[in-house]
């Protein structure tokens, strides 16, 4: 049985290991677990950061990280889902849905009316997962896709 709960600062190392696994699975550059543990420890102490942990038989099997930021378009914050991961051999068993549902519920409790997620265009499985849960990349009343751009904080 999988238990999905809000993570605490004491879970920082477990979350760091899951994030490391996530990035290495997809051959993405990632810092060492000890560096990630320090970052999770710092972030989990902030009110605007929410982490969710999925555990099965006392082993961590998935997690998510949500950051809440102020918004000008409504009174509550915007929830940004930065990470959501389920270990490969347990995918397609509803764990990701449980994790996402708890993230959405916790964000709603903080007054966030919407959640943003960035997904690589080539990641068809992940896009289908979020679309199945009501996420879109074309807003009502428009006929064009939303895009996310990444750039340096200093001008070149």
TrEMBL record:
<feature type="domain" description="N-acetyltransferase">
    <location>
        <begin position="2"/>
        <end position="151"/>
    </location>
</feature>
<dbReference type="InterPro" id="IPR000182">
    <property type="entry name" value="GNAT_dom"/>
</dbReference>
<protein>
    <submittedName>
        <fullName>GNAT family N-acetyltransferase</fullName>
    </submittedName>
</protein>
<dbReference type="Pfam" id="PF00583">
    <property type="entry name" value="Acetyltransf_1"/>
</dbReference>
<keyword id="KW-0808">Transferase</keyword>
<dbReference type="InterPro" id="IPR016181">
    <property type="entry name" value="Acyl_CoA_acyltransferase"/>
</dbReference>
<dbReference type="InterPro" id="IPR050832">
    <property type="entry name" value="Bact_Acetyltransf"/>
</dbReference>
<keyword id="KW-0012">Acyltransferase</keyword>
């Amino acid at each position: 049985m999988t238990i999905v709960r809000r993570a605490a600062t004491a879970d920082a190392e477990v979350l760091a290991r899951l994030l490391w696994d996530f990035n290495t699975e997809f051959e993405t550059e990632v810092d060492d677990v000890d560096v990630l543990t320090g970052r999770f420890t710092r972030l989990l102490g902030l009110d605007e950061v929410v982490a969710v942990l999925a555990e099965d038989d006392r082993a961590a099997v998935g997690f998510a990280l949500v950051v809440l930021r102020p918004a000008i378009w409504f009174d509550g914050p915007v929830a940004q889902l930065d990470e959501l991961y389920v270990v490969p051999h347990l995918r397609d068993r509803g764990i990701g849905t449980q994790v996402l549902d708890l993230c959405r519920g916790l964000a709603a409790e903080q007054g966030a009316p919407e959640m943003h997620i960035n997904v690589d265009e080539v990641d068809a499985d992940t896009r289908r997962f979020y679309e199945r849960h009501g996420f879109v990349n074309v807003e009502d009343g428009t006929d064009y896709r939303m895009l996310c751009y990444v750039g340096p904080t200093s001008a070149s």
